[in-house]
Amino acid sequence: MGDYWLYFPFVVVLGLLIGSFMNVVAIRILKQESVVFPPSHCVHCNHSLKPLDLIPLLSYLFLRGKCRYCRAAISWVYPAGEAATAALFALLYWQLGLSPELLTGFLLAAILTAIVITDLKSMLIPDTIVLAGMIFAVILRLWTHPLPLWDYAIAFFAGSGLLWIIAIASKGGMGGGDIKLFAFLGLVLGIKLTLLTLFVASLMGTLYGLVLFAMHRLQKKHTVPFGPFIATAAMLMYLWGDSLIEWYMEMIMG
Ligand SMILES: [Zn+2]
């Protein structure tokens, strides 16, 4: 446990930096801008931002959520994305320790943070983000894989295939972004946890729909972005899915 706290600050800072980068990726891809150019600027006044304006979390707090140059409000999504990524990194590090698999966990957290932002903002899960995730996931999986490689390969097709069938059956209730996201999740999670993620995400989505319905908030044409539910379920299953399966098996076997 002593070692844990030794590296803890580095993991949190890395999480804040990656979270900050994923914010930029998410916002710029939605606006169809390049991720690297132009340099960071205020979305309201276009004033370019100095390093002091770009410190994750701290700049937002010091500037009290307003642009230094035009005083326009900075979206709370930025600090929230940074804090969430840092918290997830710390949690992953706590669960996995300093291991090769930790990098896969970081990749999962980073990609999911970005797609939650884009899905909440624009009901979109951009191909670019998911494809980048797939490429990194394949590289990482060739290097480190707790399950046999074929398990991840099958999960890549099984998760997305199942979603593709649901998408056809529900006639547009499920987006193409969700399907590709599940292909990525397959590479990270393997078959069992991918299917469990689909089950848990659907359960959470349904419960949320029922709550909205009970509160008379659900209109007929109301579409709820499914991405945040998939992301939450995937993260939970990646961290504790195996324990959940073990617990369930013990319970039914007695
Ligand atoms: Zn500004």
UniProtKB/TrEMBL annotation:
PANTHER family the UniProt entry points to: PREPILIN LEADER PEPTIDASE_N-METHYLTRANSFERASE-RELATED, TYPE 4 PREPILIN-LIKE PROTEINS LEADER PEPTIDE-PROCESSING ENZYME
Keyword terms, alphabetized: Cell membrane, Membrane, Transmembrane, Transmembrane helix
Organism annotation: Paenibacillus solanacearum
Topological type in the membrane: Multi-pass membrane protein
One annotated GO molecular function: aspartic-type endopeptidase activity
Transmembrane parts of this sequence: 6-30, 76-96, 102-117, 124-143, 149-169, 181-214, 226-245
Sequence similarity: Belongs to the peptidase A24 family.
GO cellular component: plasma membrane
Main location, first listed in the record: membrane
Domain Prepilin type IV endopeptidase peptidase: 107-210
Protein name: Type 4 prepilin-like proteins leader peptide-processing enzyme
InterPro entries (alphabetical): Prepilin_IV_endopep_pep, Prepilin_pept_A24_N, Prepilin_peptidase/N-MTase
GO biological process: signal peptide processing
Domain Prepilin peptidase A24 N-terminal residues, every copy: 13-95
Cell location: Cell membrane
